[in-house]
Amino acid sequence: RHGVVRLDGVTPPGAAATPAHTGFERPLISVVIPTAHRKQQALGSVRAAKAAGYPRLEILVVDNLPGPDGDAWLRAEVEKLGARYLAEPRKGVSIARNTGAKATSGDFIAFLDENISVEKGWFDAVAEEFATDPEVGCVTAMVLPASLETDAEVLYERLKGYSHTVRRQRLDRRTVREDPLYPLSLARYGPGSCTTWRRTAFDALGGYDPLLGAGTPAMSGEDLDLFVRLARMGGTVVHTPHAVARHTHRADWLELREQMRGYGVGLSAMLLLSVVRRPVTVFSILRRLPRGVARLGARTPELPLSDRAARSRLRQLRRDERYGLLGGPAALVRAASRHRFDAGSGHR
């Protein structure tokens, strides 16, 4: 219906389901899966991780929307799958991820969103990147759509999807020579929905900022914030096409519009927070701002010119994202106020 090919079981040309070399010692990888409103999907993410064929995993599901005593049903289902359950009532995916990281012990931490399902060989490919290059602080993966059945799913994939490159990319201080927008170029890093961090690098950065991300007024921005902080620390991110995962896109049009607005809110909140932390960064941001705004609206999906309805929806999504940019500062103030209240009330 949408002129796309089913992707079930298909690896993109140039990518591979498993790494090229397997002669390395596989480290323990801690898998942290935060969940709130899509707990059934979180169970699917656990099943996929267990089926990926990696021998040394510890999997922790962090319930970010528990009842007063946790969610007995979710705990039981998670434990049936051989994973652990942990309740974190303080709202926000950043807090949930940080809590999960502290509760696990692996030298590497894979953060998987609840709507992510990794494919076989995913952890091997990620582990190999760390094993072959000790300077790598974070590895991101190839993410393909789990479904392209609705207009919303197709528009999201063509506007924000991460299947546009099958080349391995190494992002470090030299990257600025080929991309003047670096380190603020989110598309270069890859998706934050399934990233793996070297624990020493993650701890050195202090984890995700609790003022950003889903579940906060800022709505997003936590992934780019952490990537940028790693880059400014002199760290390295590798994007590998050998680690393939599936992402369940928003199937509903109104949900997609809200998601796009959230991207804008989170981006401007993240930029403002960067300036608050280090005022000198305002000059770097202002220097890159015109190019960044131009790039924000430059990526055009492959839609037929005659498809007026699709083009109208595309323009609406772009307006939603740009409109969201205006709300970032106020959202950051609300997030900071809520965080201070939670800290002052001793909310655990």
TrEMBL record:
Keyword Transferase present in the record's keywords: the answer is yes
Q: Name one Pfam family in it.
A: Glycos_transf_2
Keyword Transferase in annotation: yes
Record keywords = Transferase
Please provide, alphabetically and separated by semicolons, the GO molecular function terms listed in this UniProt record. transferase activity
Q: Which residues form the Glycosyltransferase 2-like domain?
A: 30-141
Which residues are in coiled coils? none
> Cross-referenced PANTHER family, in alphabetical order?
GLYCOSYLTRANSFERASE, GLYCOSYLTRANSFERASE 2-LIKE DOMAIN-CONTAINING PROTEIN
Return the protein name: Glycosyltransferase
Q: Name the species this protein comes from.
A: Amycolatopsis rhizosphaerae
